[in-house]
């Protein structure tokens, strides 16, 4: 107002870089003027058109009489923006002249200040400073420390020390910073020589011949008399009178705009230029004709600490009639968990025997030598592979041999399929099995380890107070039950194993037949059972997947405390505390725990429930939210590795992302796909990326930063159904994705750089 020749202007960072007028760099508050050639601005208008920041003042710039336009930096936004231009030569000259006069006045004042400075005259203060300063009067003492030359490099003898002699049976080795290794290596010469090992092999594919099929149908037609009667009826007249106004409005709207235009898809297609290459590179593949023929892989787990070791379980391929009963099992196959190594893909490293086919299993996060698994008959089984840890660590590549991902993959797969092996892998028996009368009656479909901070850790036993029990394992099953377990002590596991071997020797039973001895059945029982049934409405919730908060769980049973050995005694009463919607048992919680959990059901429902266990409360009542989003059973219910309250659910033809605490539904859900989603996993390094397996053998890669309405990329992996996906990021240079199919083949894929490294602020 009052300055018609001044026009405020908003300049983006890109425009500031083009015209060298970056705020607080090229132009400052003291030097706030910048003359820009009129020709450069007109050229920018031609190049960037409407996206140019000068487009709003196009007529003003074209009508400017001079050759250079004055741009002024206004950090205080006096005219509403950080910049403004001067559109007349007179105002331009006045501003430049006033700025020059101000600079001259400032320089004159600075010279006057310099001339007014007087020399310093001493008044004796320096003597006081000298007296107060510290002066060394005593001579320093020097020490020299040395030792005899023969003691340099002398051998050192270590002795064993029993940890039980220490206080609390715990010997701690505290960490300290070693200055020896703080030197940064600037240059190093390394030489490497490699020669590929040549192999010759062959394979034959199965050919299926095509078949011709046809279907014929015809529509149901009304006769002319029936048509005339229907059109002249009073019901038809009332219907047309009721809907004709809404139909007219709908027809008018269709003429104005296209209601079927997909705005989200059009918005995403604008960002397609300059995208990096995204792919999953085939690295290796594993299969075994003895254990995996005509079987489907149910679970894949990477070893938490040993690089290149991967384990999998399998069960019989269910036919259409057997889909309902997952516990059907043929006695022709052995129920095992197989261990493979990248460095020796042709040989199995370890085989874990099980009483029944394994549906799911997990390594213990605190002790990877302890493995827990859930069987198709509902049993929970435990293995201890600590005696074979050195064998797994010693599985290294042969000298001067490097495994090539593209060339060795088919050879390794064919050799493994042919059963070629120099040595038979060690067989490991299970060291604990749950009691059959008090375990799941249907397959144990999901299993999770719970964090335990006690000193006993995964060795078993309870906390310092013998009436406190640490809950270290949780399982769920479609029989509407969730079990919480503690881990048997090492003595109990060894006793179980010795009795199992003794029974096998006495009865001469083959090792793959499950033991049904009553004493062995009573060796391990759950501590808590939660029934997911509403007795008021007679509603049952059969969980396939469960996801809990990662907190420490422990409880004290009602009444007199019982030791773990008492819980494992003869069957007189239920050895666990049973909870349900109408339970009246009193639980005293020793530590505040979060009982919020997500459950995925057989029929595709996702349940978000909260079992509130409060002190002196007579009945814990669940507060459940049910969401009927998926059309089939939930095959994946996983928490995000980056957000503790974000979960991914996959089932049927949809997936959904949920946020804990949001009760009105998922925060993102997909539309129905053409095929079925059969497996899925979050990326371990990128928060916005996850992988989904399909029934046609392909992998959909979803990148939510690029697209949310469809997968950003997809890649075909197999000709059969994808059954399980498991990512690994143990190596900084290589990240892998393990994918299994319904034919018993495990594919190891290398994740590309674009899917491995997160974007800025992702």
TrEMBL record:
Alphabetical keyword list: Cytoplasm, Repeat, WD repeat
Q: One Pfam family name from the record?
A: WD40
Keyword Repeat part of the UniProt annotation:
yes
Q: Name one GO biological process term.
A: inner dynein arm assembly
UniProt biased composition (Acidic residues) = 102-114
For this UniProt entry, which residues form the secretion signal? none
Q: Which GO terms describe its cellular component?
A: inner dynein arm
Q: Where is this region: Disordered?
A: 95-118, 398-425
Q: What is its subcellular localisation?
A: Cytoplasm
- Which GO MF terms are attached to this record? dynein heavy chain binding; dynein light chain binding
Q: What is its main location?
A: cytoplasm
Q: What is this protein called?
A: WDR63 protein
Organism in which the protein naturally occurs:
Sylvietta virens
Q: Which gene encodes it?
A: Wdr63
């Amino acid at each position: 107002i009052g300055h018609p020749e001044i026009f405020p202007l908003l300049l983006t960072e890109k425009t500031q870089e083009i015209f060298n007028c970056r705020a607080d760099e090229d132009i400052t508050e003291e030097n706030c003027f910048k003359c820009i050639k009129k020709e450069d601005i007109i050229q920018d208008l031609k190049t960037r058109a409407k996206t140019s920041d000068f487009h709003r003042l196009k007529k003003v710039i074209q009508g400017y009489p001079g050759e250079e336009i004055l741009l002024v930096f206004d950090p205080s936004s006096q005219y509403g923006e950080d910049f403004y231009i001067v559109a007349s030569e007179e105002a331009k000259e006045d501003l430049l002249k006033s700025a020059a006069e101000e600079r001259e006045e400032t320089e004159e004042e600075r010279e006057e200040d310099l001339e007014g400075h007087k020399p310093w005259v001493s008044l004796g203060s320096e003597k006081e400073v000298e007296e107060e300063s510290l002066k060394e009067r005593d001579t320093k003492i020097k020490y020299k420390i040395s030792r005899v030359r023969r003691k340099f490099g002398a051998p050192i003898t270590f002795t064993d020390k029993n940890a039980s002699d220490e206080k609390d049976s715990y010997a701690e080795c505290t960490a300290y910073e070693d200055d020896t290794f703080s030197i940064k290596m600037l240059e190093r010469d390394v030489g490497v020589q490699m020669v590929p090992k040549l192999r010759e092999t062959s394979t034959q594919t199965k050919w299926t011949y095509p078949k011709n099929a046809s279907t014929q149908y015809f529509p149901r037609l009304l006769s002319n008399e029936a048509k005339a009667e229907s059109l002249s009826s009073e019901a038809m007249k009332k219907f047309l009178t009721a809907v004709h106004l809404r139909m007219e409005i709908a027809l008018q709207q269709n003429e104005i705009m296209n209601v079927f235009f997909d705005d989200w898809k059009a918005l995403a297609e604008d960002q397609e230029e300059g995208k990096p290459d995204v792919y999953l590179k085939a690295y290796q593949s594993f299969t075994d004709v003895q254990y995996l023929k005509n079987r489907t892989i149910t679970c894949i787990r990477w070893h938490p600490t040993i690089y290149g070791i991967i384990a999998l379980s399998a069960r019989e391929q269910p036919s259409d009639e057997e889909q309902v009963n997952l516990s059907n099992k043929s006695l022709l196959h052995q129920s095992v968990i197989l261990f493979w190594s990248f460095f020796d893909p042709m040989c199995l490293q370890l085989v874990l025997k099980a009483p029944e086919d394994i549906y799911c299993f997990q390594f213990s996060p605190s002790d990877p030598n302890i493995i827990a698994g859930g069987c198709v008959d509902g049993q929970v089984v435990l293995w201890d592979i600590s005696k074979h840890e050195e064998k797994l660590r010693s599985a290294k590549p042969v000298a001067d041999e490097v495994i090539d991902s593209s060339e060795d993959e088919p050879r390794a797969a064919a050799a493994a399929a042919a059963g070629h092996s120099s040595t038979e892998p060690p067989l490991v028996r299970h060291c604990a099995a749950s009691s059959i009368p008090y375990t799941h009656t249907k397959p144990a479909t999901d299993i999770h380890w719970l964090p335990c901070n006690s000193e006993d850790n995964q060795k078993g036993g309870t906390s310092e107070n013998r009436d406190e029990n640490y809950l270290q394992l949780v399982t769920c099953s479609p029989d509407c039950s969730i079990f919480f377990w503690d881990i048997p002590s090492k003595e109990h596991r060894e006793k179980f194993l010795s009795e199992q071997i003794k029974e096998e020797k006495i009865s001469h039973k083959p090792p793959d037949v499950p033991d049904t001895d009553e004493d062995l059945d009573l060796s391990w029982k759950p501590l808590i059972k939660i029934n997911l049934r509403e007795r008021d409405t007679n509603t049952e919730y059969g969980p396939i997947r469960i996801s809990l908060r990662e907190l420490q769980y422990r409880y004290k049973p009602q009444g007199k405390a019982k030791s773990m050995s008492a819980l494992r005694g003869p069957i007189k009463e239920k050895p666990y505390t049973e909870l349900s919607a109408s339970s009246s048992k009193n639980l005293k919680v020793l530590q505040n725990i979060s009982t919020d959990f997500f459950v995925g059901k057989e029929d595709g429902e996702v349940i978000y429930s909260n079992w509130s266990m409060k002190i002196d409360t007579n009945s814990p009542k669940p507060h459940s939210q049910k969401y009927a989003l998926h059309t089939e059973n939930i095959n994946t219910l996983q928490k995000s590795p980056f957000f503790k309250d974000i979960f991914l659910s996959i089932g049927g033809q949809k997936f959904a992302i949920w946020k804990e605490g949001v009760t009105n539904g998922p925060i993102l859900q997909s539309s129905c796909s053409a095929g079925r989603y059969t497996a899925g996993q979050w990326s371990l390094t990128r928060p916005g990326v996850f992988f989904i397996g399909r029934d046609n053998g392909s992998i959909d890669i979803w990148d939510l930063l690029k697209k949310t309405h469809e997968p950003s990329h997809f890649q075909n992996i197999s000709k059969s159904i994808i059954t399980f996906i498991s990512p690994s990021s143990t190596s900084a240079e290589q990240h892998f994705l393990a994918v299994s199919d319904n034919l018993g083949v495990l594919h190891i894929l290398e994740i590309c750089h674009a899917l491995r490294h997160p974007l800025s602020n992702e």
